[in-house]
Amino acid sequence: MAIILKRQLTEDEKLAVLRTHGRICFATGHPIAEGEPLHFDHIKAFSSGGPTDISNIAPMCEKHNKEKGRLPLYDFRVKLQINEFFKIGDRLTLNDELKYFKEKQKIAKYGESVILINKDAINNTIELEINNIHYKFALYTCPNTTWEYFYATLPIDVLSSDDDEDKEIGLQPRYLISNKVFDLFRHFQSHPVLQPSICRLHNGKILVFDGQHKIAGLLWEGRREFECKVYVNPDPRLLNDTNIAAHDKYAQTRFFASIMVGKLGNQFGKDFEDYKYQEDGSVKSEVGFIKFLKEKDQLTNAEVNKRFRNFLYNSILSDDRNKISRLVSSGNRGSDEKPITVDMLEKSLFSSFLYREPVSDDMTTDAYKREFEIENFIKLLNIIDDKSLRDWDAKQRSEPLQIKLNRIFRSKSIMAWSEILHGAICAKLDIQDSEERTKPFYRELTEQDLEKITFVITRLINWKFWDSPPDSEIDRILSDNKSAVKEYLKGKGLTTGYLMGAPE
């Protein structure tokens, strides 16, 4: 029975739809109570191949019909399912989606091993056993690296994400982004996939490190086989560097700052540990390591400095003792639930309290204080959390306390008061030397020192102007540049002297 988009269904047509679907909302599968309004909509848009007859109509409850807007019903249902998946966490990869699909019985398995049966260099072929079946693929060689690779359409049964696992650094450089997964799911309903996903064959596993969003989006559309380019014998270190550059320096869409911190920080940290335990008779220092790494990997000063700073940031953000990490966004923008970004921290607390240049101190002597600095910085963050952010509640955004916290931790605000806080803490700890002030936490701090820092932070959080009524002057000022915000704060009394205990 044909139906037309722009007319109402007849009662007979509605009954026919209900006979097929029952009084069940197609969006989530929940029952629609008797007496509750029934809505009917197209399951799949005509533009995406949806049929033009009544088989393409399903019932909806009133709530979900209003929520879906102009989305076709099928797309809206998938969007709700994707949202449900992303509630698991904010640092999810393709492996997390595959695990979710398996738990929901959408797929039977993933990440199964493959067996390399034969690699024929004369005929340029490779033979693999996949799901107990032998396949032969043409083998190609990269003219620059001599790495071998092949193209294949592979079942999801043998694919997994190239994550950091088994004490190895994976090559997957970023996490899944909810909107991107949904946009690609919709895009691939009516568009082709232009490029294969890129993988490597490692320890009998086929690991995806580029194109995970394509696979993630296609999975929601029902695809279970995927076009892949698979490297057979790559140098993982060079491939990792190449992949990072492809997604950062040469990318149209840049890495999230937090992801780059994690990837470069992890890679750098592994090299750092290897360097520290080299028995070559040389004095081991950060300066020496930087020189070693530049020569080893042919890195520029900018590249190696970026890795060094990311290593420091990652050491702090990935530490289980850091209470504020729960509020740090994995993206470049904050949200109501995760208001702090790595970029904010880099331009505020990191720049004020973390010495971000390599030191020449011998790592084997007591002069080397980097571990104390990282521990002290985490204690600083935890004091800030105890005095303020532990009360963060995105659901109470109109409440006075939440308005206050939003003011304190707006990006320009935290950048401005971090510099004032630095001056006050240095004064409280009696750090007068200009060079020492650049690394205030690069030392052992006593419990008495921490009490002084707690006093200063308490004064900061309790500053009276944070509690101004809604839509006060402070709300307009906090949208200005950092210099204007800092001048405003100081002009209203948020000064080094006030933080040290002077009356307002």
Domain unit count: 3
Topology, number of strands: 11
Average residue pLDDT? 86
Please state roughly what percent of the residues sit in beta strands, choosing from under 5%, 5-15%, 15-25%, 25-35%, 35-45% or over 45%: 5-15%
Instruction: Name the overall outline.
Output: flat
Characterization of this structure:
By secondary structure, the chain is an alpha+beta fold. The protein has three domains: 11-83, DNA Binding (I), subunit A (Orthogonal Bundle), CATH 1.10.30; 89-247, Conserved hypothetical protein from pyrococcus furiosus pfu- 392566-001, ParB domain (Alpha-Beta Complex); 324-500, no CATH class. Helices cover 43% and strands 12% of the residues. The chain is built from 20 helices and eleven strands. It has helices at 11-21, 62-67, 73-86, 94-103, 178-187, 212-221, 236-247, 257-276, 286-297, 301-317, 342-346, 349-353, 370-387, 400-408, 411-428, 434-437, 447-461, 473-477, 482-491, 496-500; strands spanning 38-42, 57-61, 115-120, 125-130, 133-138, 140-141, 148-155, 159-161, 197-202, 205-210, 225-231. The strands form three sheets. A six-stranded mixed β-sheet has the order 6-7-11-9-10-8. A three-stranded antiparallel β-sheet has the order 3-4-5, with no helix packed on it. α5 (178-187) packs across α6 (212-221) and α8 crosses α10 (301-317). The radius of gyration is 28 Å and the shape is flat. Residues 1-6 and 250-265 have low confidence and may be disordered.
Q: Care to give the gist of this entry?
A:
The chain is α+β, with helices and mostly antiparallel strands. Helices cover about 45% and strands about 10% of the residues.
